[in-house]
Amino acid sequence: MDEINQQIVAMLSCDSRMSATEIGKRVHRSRVAVQNRISALIASGEITGFGITLKSKALPVLFEVAFSPIGACDVIVPRFRKKHHIIKAWSVTGSADLFIWTEAGEANEVHAMRNFLLKQPEVARVLTHTIVNTYG
Hints:
Layout: H1 3-14, H2 20-27, H3 31-43, E1 59-67, H4 73-83, E2 88-91, E3 98-104, H5 107-118, E4 123-130
Antiparallel strand pairs: 1-3, 1-4, 2-3
Helix pairs in contact: 2-3
C-alpha cells in the first residue's frame, strides 16, 4: 500500500463518511482518483467495510448496601444523591438494607460511587452489580 492509500485509509478510519472530494483536497488528488483508489482498496480486500462509532452508553449499576446499625436509608440516600445520580433507591428486607440503581459512564465512576458508600460510617458492606440485561 503506497503512502497516498495509507493516508486515504487513515482518513476513512477517522471518518468513514468523509467525501472523496475532501480526501482529494488533503492528498492533492482529484475526487475521481480518490474514488478509484478506494474502489481498488475494496476490490483487493484491503478495505473490508466501513463503520460508525456510537456514543458510549451509560453502564447501569446496582449497589447492594448493608448498614450497621440497621435503618440508615434516610441518611445515606440524600448523601449519595448530593454527589451522584440516583435512578431509583429501595429500602429492602433480607441480607441487604438498601439497593441503589444508578448509571456510570466509566468504570472509574463506579469505583468512586462504591468508595463513597464505603466511607459512610453507617455502611457495613457494599456489593456492586453491573446490569447486563433487563427483562420485562
